[in-house]
Fold this sequence. Notes:
seven-stranded parallel sheet; alpha/beta; 11 strands
Amino acid sequence: MAKSKHDSYIRRLGAQLAGLHGAGLHGSYIRRLGAQLAGLHxxxxxxxxxxxxxxGRIGRRLCAKLAKKEKVVAIVRSEDSAKKLPKGTxxxxxxxEYGDNxxxxxxxxxxxxxxAGSTDTSLGEGELALANMTATGHFFNSLPDNVNRVVxxxxxxxxxxKPTRLPCDEFSHxxxxxxxxxxxxxxxxxxxxxxxxxxxxxxxPGIVYGPSFEEGFFPMLxxxxxGGAKIIGDGENRIPLVHVDDVVSAILLSLKSKKEGxxxxxxxxxxxxxxxxxxxxxxxxxxxxxKEKISYxxxxxxxxxxxxxxxxxxxxxxxxSDMVDQMALDRVFDTSLAKKELGWSxxxxxxxxxxxxxxxxxxxxxxxxxxxxxxxxGKEKGNKxxxxxxxxxGKxxxxxxxxxxxxxxxxx
Length: 412
């Protein structure tokens, strides 16, 4: 990152922060931060980056990467949530959903990254709007006008399940067709308005996978391992995966960008079909590649039925209608603009990425098997002890009865 262009601003901010006692913002921490700002200004090496969504899977990896060279402050809900951050990450407590303390928490920011939001498609549209739209509005409204650049992470979901053209580029017409997509598009529109105040880069990642991305991927790997996975449709549709480290790389390059105004980029990895991805995963798991097929309409019907059962039972399920769409629909995205303007391209190939995910799954599966074995063993020990106690108790009753009988015999 470039050195600060706002020297007088930093001096004022250092003095302000040194005396600031914001409720819920850790007054002692802010005083130390103020002193650090003043010292860093004198050293000419200041660069403060605020990150929302820092406790998420992308956010944690971004913090770990940035903290080696820059001063990073994660915006978190509470001290408990801050425990998820990489060790040593500075944080400030504020509410994105309601805006509490947010302006104070962001007042130091020269650069900002907005990763906050929800990808949970089981939530209602109101809850998703709060996480993906309202929170984004509070974030942009709370940023200082002289921030150098803001990176807002959106999603390819804004193009809809069936983009208007393939390959889909940044100029393709948005077609958000579910609650998640609509709220992400609404959040992106807010980010675009922010470009009137400062440079804004919007990134639209594909389906992110890699370390810590268990949800959705592990259940599918389990089915592949157990021979229960099926190809949906003919398997020749392309799935727009992107490795988490490639998303982090795109964010880092965006922070270094000199482009003014608004920039928008698709961020997707190596092009691959459903059939190829399933076969590669099977190979890493030492299993047979899925061959049995199920039609797309049948898979959708089964997924909807499964969602109804899940809602009644209260148990979460990974086999959802959205999952079927992600697996079965043909979607491919043009990332040449990101390569041209950011110098970005996907570095983590599918072979490496799927191997990482399969390795994590195997470790997870081993832990689960050990846990189940311990539970069964504990139950068996408990049953054995219970039988032993019952036997001892029964023997005691028999002895007592015999003793009583003998006594009666002596009395007569």
